[in-house]
Amino acid sequence: AAGVIQSPRHLIKEKRETATLKCYPIPRHDTVYWYQQGPGQDPQFLISFYEKMQSDKGSIPDRFSAQQFSDYHSELNMSSLELGDSALYFCASSLEDAGELFFGEGSRLTVL
Amino acid sequence: GNSVTQMEGPVTLSEEAFLTINCTYTATGYPSLFWYVQYPGEGLQLLLKATKADDKGSNKGFEATYRKETTSFHLEKGSVQVSDSAVYFCALSDQDAGGTSYGKLTFGQGTILTVHP
User: Fold this and answer.
1) CB atoms within 10 A of CB B99
2) Alpha-carbon gap, residue B4 to B109, rounded angstroms
3) pLDDT-derived band at B97, boundaries 50, 70, 90
4) Average pLDDT, stretch A14-35?
């Protein structure tokens, strides 16, 4: 069965650079969630989208932005990267904003 | 706000030992409760869930019972295997009074389980 696809799987950036992560949800899933997991930490909710509209917002820095496109894929844009942004970024999708979440394998961002 | 507290880790066991990982929660509303497992280098996988009080979730020999009176959802397995070595996360999502879950999850801090042969 198709799963949540995230790209890239690994990304290395310098401080103050910009990074973009992509998430392709399971087909027919209309809700996407982004989570950030720092080293040895639990995943922290960043933001979610339902039917291309932002549905909820968590601890997402102002330097980050995200959107969901017409094909339901989502992109997380991170600017002015800081060392503390180094983390594993998970995307999850669900059918409607009330269904079980299915997680991708994550994109590991390293900021040097 | 919502919060989830897991027992301090890491947990190291011998194969075939009994496993308990404690999880307690604080939530408004009527949360659904979950256990997720994360194998090394992989994403989060749903292990089991329970959506209302006294429900028991079970999968792959793991069980957890939703205890509203103690606000707990402890994970248990009678006989662990080396392949169970992973990080286990307890999580909750809010539900409204009608039982509809909101997808956003609040996670506990995770418990590292290592099982030796």
Assistant:
1) 11
2) 8
3) low
4) 95
Single-letter amino acid code for the residue at A68:
Q
Category of A43 on φ-ψ map: left (φ > 0), alpha (ψ -120 to 50) or beta: beta
Interface list for A 39-78 with B (CB within 8 A): 41-45, 48, 56, 58
Distance to chain A for B77, nearest Cα, Å: 22
Query: Three-class SS of residue A27?
Result: coil
A20, exposed or middle or buried, with CB in 10 Å at 0-12, 13-18, 19+?
Answer: middle
In angstroms, what CA-CA distances link A30 with A65, A69, A78?
19, 10, 23
pLDDT in tens, B53-95: 999 999 999 999 999 999 999 999 999 999 999 999 999 987 6
Say which residue the tokens 């950036």 belong to: A13
Closest CA to A85 of A66, A109, A107: A109
Secondary structure of B75-110 in the HEC alphabet?
A: EEECCCCHHHCEEEEEEEECECCCCCECCCCEECCC
Distance between A69 CA and the closest CA of chain B, angstroms: 19
